[in-house]
C-alpha cells in the first residue's frame, strides 16, 4: 500500500527477504494465470471452426488452473490437472502446449514434495487412458496419451531425483557441521587441559621463588635492610603473580575435572605405567620402550608435553592399529629430546580433519618450543615424532 509506513530501523536485507518470500508465495498463481491465458488463446484458435469456443477455453483453463494450488496440495493439483486434460481429450478437444506444460510442472512438484510411493501412482490416469481403446478415436489418438504419460512419468522421476539430491546435500551439510562443532569442542577441551597443566607447572616454580626469597631473607645473617626489602618485594611479587594467574585461569580450571587438579602432573618417570595400561587396553602386539642417549633432567613442562604426546599416540594406535606392535622411543640428543611412537599396523595416516589428537600434540609441542610430525612410517604403519628442547630442572 502507498500509505504503509516502514518501522524505523528496519534492515534492508529483511525487507528484501520479505519481498522475495511474497514473490515466491505468489509465483504459482502468476504462473497459473500466464499458462491459462496462453492455453485459452491456443484452444480458441485451434477450435475456431468447432464451437462452442467458450467450452474449449474452459477445458483448457481447467487443465492449467491447478498450478495455483501446487504449493498447498501438489498431489491433488496433479490429479486435478490430469483429470481435466483427459476429460478434454474425451470430448475431442486437443491438448494445448500450455496444457502439456502444466502436468510437467505439477508432477515434478509432486515428485519433489511427496514420497515416491505417493507421487508414482499419480501417473495411473494417463496409463489407464493410454490402455483403453477409446483413446484411438480421440484427437491425436494413443500417441498423445503416450506423450502425456511420458511427460508425467519423467517429471515425477525428475522431482524425486532432485528431492533425493537435496536431502543428501542437507544430510552432508549437517554431518560436516556436527563434525566441525565436535572438533572445535574437543580442541577447546584439549587447550583447556594444556593451560591447566601449564598453570600447575608454572605455579610450582613461582611458589618456589616466593619460598626461596623468604628463606634467603631469614637465613642470611647480617643482611642489609635494603637487601631484605628487595627479597621481601620478590616474595610479594611472586605471590601476587600466582594469585593473578589463578584468578585469570579460574574459569578455565572449572571446565576440567576438579579431582585431577589434586594429583601431580605426570612425567616421563610414569611412562612405564602408561605403557602397562596400553598393553592392558588392547595393544595385543606388545608395547616396547626404547631409551637412547644420556638421560637428562627436563623441565616439568617438557616432561609433561612428552608424556601427553606418547599418551595420545598410543591412543591413536589402539584406535587405528588394533593388535599391532608399538615402539616408544626416547632419544636424548644434545639439547633435544626426540620422542618417536610407531607401529606396524596397516596405515596409512588418518585423514586431516578427522579427530583432534594430532592437533593437540602439535599444540603441546609448540608450547614448549618443539614440533610434531606424523605420517606413514617407513615400510608400514604410522609414525609420530616429536622434537622437544631439553632444559635443566629449575626447581
From TrEMBL:
GO terms for molecular function: ATP binding; phosphorelay sensor kinase activity; protein dimerization activity. It catalyses: ATP + protein L-histidine = ADP + protein N-phospho-L-histidine. The keyword Cytoplasm does not apply. Coiled coil: none annotated. GO terms for cellular component: membrane. Its EC number is 2.7.13.3. Residues 301-392 form the Histidine kinase/HSP90-like ATPase domain. It is an enzyme of class 2 (transferase). Keywords: ATP-binding, Kinase, Membrane, Nucleotide-binding, Phosphoprotein, Transferase, Transmembrane, Transmembrane helix, Two-component regulatory system. The chain crosses the membrane at residues 52-73, 79-106, 118-136, 142-161. This is histidine kinase. The lineage of its organism: Bacteria, Bacillati, Actinomycetota, Actinomycetes, Cryptosporangiales.
